Amino acid sequence: MAAALRTALLLVLLGCSYLFVVHPYWFPAGASLQSVMIDRQFRIAFWVFGGLFILGHLILVFVLVEKAPADGKPAAGSWRLEVTWTISIAVIFFWFNISGERLWSSMMPPERQAAEVQVEVTGAQFQWYFRYPGADGVFGRTDPQKFARPEEGNPLGIDPSDPAGRDDVLSTAMIVPVGHTVQLHLRALDVIHSLFIPAMRFKQDTVPGMEIHSHFTPMQIGTYEIACAELCGLGHYRMRATVRVVSEEDFDKWMKAQEAAVLSH
Amino acid sequence: MSSSTQLTNAFTSQSRLHRFFSTDHKVIGRQYFFLSLAAVLVGAWLSLLMRIHLVWPKAAIPFLGEIKPENYLAYLTMHGTLMVFFVLSTVPQAGFGTFFLPLQLGASKMALPRLTAAGFWTALASFMVLTISFVVPGGPGGAGWTQYPPLSAISAAGPGQGLGTDLWLVSIGLFCLSSLMSATGFLVTTIKLRCPGMTWMRMPLTCWSWFVTSILILLAFGILLAALVLLMLDRHAGTSFFVPGGLVISGKMVGHAGGSPLLWQHLFWFFGHPEVYIAVLPAMGVTSHLLSVFARKPVFGYKAMVGATLAIGALGFMVWGHHMFVSGMNPHAGFAFSSLTTAIAVPSAIKTFNWVATLYGGKIRYTTPLLFSVGFVSLFITGGLTGPILAQPSLDIYLHDTYFVVAHFHLIMAMAGLFAIFSATYFWFPKMFGRMMNERLGRLHFWITLFGSYATFMPMHLLGIAGHPRRYSDLMGVQYVAAMAPLQKFITFAAIVTIAGQIIFLVNLFWSMRKGRLAEANPWQCTTLEWTLPSPVPPEGYGGREPGVNHGPYEYNISGAKEDFIMQDAPAT
């Protein structure tokens, strides 16, 4: 039975290691400035904690090896070992923790910075809306209870009497220029949603009653999927959208066309 | 003779009904055991339905037909609720604890026996209210066991958000009351009913973990109860604790104004994180106890174990914000919660070290309870090591609400917890039912469950790393999620095999109750006081004889002793 248990634990160890070496699924290729830092931190985590996983199981297998009974009283503890172990593992954990804290502080959303690209993201059951402030750089006031008319092209309830809102551009895909920090203003119309862009390593809940500011910096031209990551009801699984990262010229062209369309409307 | 003993005696001499409504802690412990057994069967059945629906969405289930998205959300809510409340926080604490805490302390009854009994009947009422939601219009709620408002606060937000959610709130409210009653009895029993010689540092580690868990229950469930009342008021009394103004849900204007959805998350997780330790501390206690028994060695570092238990209990109340890194909570708070969460990993690592050191150099007896205890240690290492990763806000941004988290908490809380429940069942079965469980079936059950748990939950890490969000009823809504269907299929196969393997446990359990080999008083050669009593424990417990304790709980292989163990109540040497 001892041999069987040891073999079983080794099989578990081998199976798990095999799974992670082969890893049929892994991170999508990173496409943002932040993804480089996060992926690096995850690689550290992977090796440190993967190593501890292997070491832990090897030791567990080792202690199950039958020993000649020790002479006299079996060890009922040892403060020296206890303290050594506690300090060693605490050093590893806190070294990793501090490296993570430094990363968080470098990525942490600063107080509403003046980035070039401003996008307001609104989550609604089960649809994402992206709004740009237009040429005036100011988002129009909204009041969904008074003005929201999805069928008339005003799902967010932009106040028609607010001049700042007249040139606002609304889109169901997020279009952003490559290489620029995108400042996001996240809101929700009904329940909590969560904007998850795996390729950008970005996730932020959108909470009704709050406007949350966050940012990311796309570095690769391409189209990336957005998924909802907070259970929001029946259609949670299909609350999908895309981010299209385009060149600066294409972005300007698109924005001009949208603004012209909005103003002629 | 005290009035409550008189009452108990009066009951036992009366009808079957009175015996059923017993204040005997042994009867109540068994009642909790069977309540959890019912809950775990329903919970496992629901997880099977979910796994089948994910990979064969059109499959027709006998009697149920095709599973619809609203059913899936209802199942995941009920699965989480049943497993967290009625299984993981019930059987290790209220089940085994109610039965064995007094006996291990040398007492024949719980302090406050009627309160303890009321605790069980309230838990049963809570379970019934929850199960009724399966048959009400709209079915059970579908907002998950965490019930984040506004989804849980506004009935227009989805099917099941009406009556189903009301029943959920009533049920869990009752469960809070039940836990508070049970924990009060535990605390008073531990403080007042220890027999002569049973000093704090002679208590088995099981008693220490039940004691600390009871403190956590008193502090945490009160908060949850308050939060549930506030949510109920938001739903029916027009208050706005959790619902802000200006919402439009399903085309309807919501009349609330001024509430904060984040307030619920703070209250919920202030309960919810200690809850994790409420589930796992008794499991740790059982594992520490059994590793010593079957390695025939004292627990390595008893005092360090007690200290780690207390440290985990205290730190457990300071880490709740790690559930909220992407919730919109002030990002500066992330720093504190990240470091505090890392801190709680240290006492957990101390425990792991001591378990391994307890096994080292032991004359290990490879019984089924030992196998499951070693399985617990393995799962605890595996599930625990992803904790410090998720504790980093910058990594959690990506991994939060993906299958990586599902893998993490299922390994560390659900599977490790379940392994401890199994080891405790195989171990204490003779004391509870008077017969031994079958070892051959027990071992077979262990192999299937060990490989099955790993095969089910390890691959979920990869899904999470690839960005698969959790709580998706359908894989086809997002393209990159749809691409992961083959691995989801593998997980479903693994889950089916694992759950099917539990039939072996059920057969063993019920067969052994009737036909198992009759157990002698101390079949495992343990030192603790419950093994001085005949198996099963007679209704009167120690009767008039109060045991006296002269030894620590883990005196195995002490040189100079006749046998390889010394009972706690043996004469002083």
What does this molecule look like?
The complex is a heterodimer of chains A (265) and B (573). Chain A is of the alpha+beta class. Chain A has helices at 2-22, 33-63, 79-107, 144-147, 248-264; strands spanning 117-124, 127-132, 169-171, 174-177, 182-188, 193-197, 202-206, 212-216, 222-228, 241-246. In chain A, the strands form 2 sheets. Chain A has a 5-stranded mixed sheet. In chain A, strands 4-10-9-6-7 form a 5-stranded mixed sheet, covered by helices on one side. In chain A, a hairpin with a 4-residue loop joins strand 6 (193-197) and strand 7 (202-206). The model of chain A has no long low-confidence stretch (mean pLDDT 93). In chain B, the strands form 2 sheets. A two-stranded antiparallel sheet of chain B has the order 1-2. A two-stranded antiparallel ribbon of chain B has the order 3-4. In chain B, helix 10 (302-315) runs antiparallel to helix 11. Chain B is globular.
Task: Please provide a brief summary of the model.
With 265 residues, chain A is of the alpha+beta class.
Record the SSE blueprint.
The complex is a heterodimer of chains A (265) and B (573).
Chain A: H1 2-22, H2 33-63, H3 79-107, E1 117-124, E2 127-132, H4 144-147, E3 169-171, E4 174-177, E5 182-188, E6 193-197, E7 202-206, E8 212-216, E9 222-228, E10 241-246, H5 248-264
Parallel strand pairs in A: 1-5, 4-10
Antiparallel strand pairs in A: 1-2, 2-3, 5-8, 6-7, 6-9, 9-10
Chain B: H1 3-13, H2 16-20, H3 25-55, E1 60-61, E2 65-66, H4 69-88, H5 90-105, H6 113-132, H7 163-192, H8 205-236, E3 248-249, E4 252-253, H9 261-295, H10 302-315, H11 333-359, H12 368-384, H13 387-390, H14 393-399, H15 403-433, H16 439-465, H17 479-482, H18 485-515
Antiparallel strand pairs in B: 1-2, 3-4
Helix pairs in contact in B: 3-4, 3-5, 3-6, 3-18, 4-5, 5-7, 5-8, 5-9, 5-15, 6-7, 7-8, 8-9, 8-10, 9-11, 9-12, 9-15, 10-11, 11-12, 12-15, 12-16, 15-16, 16-18
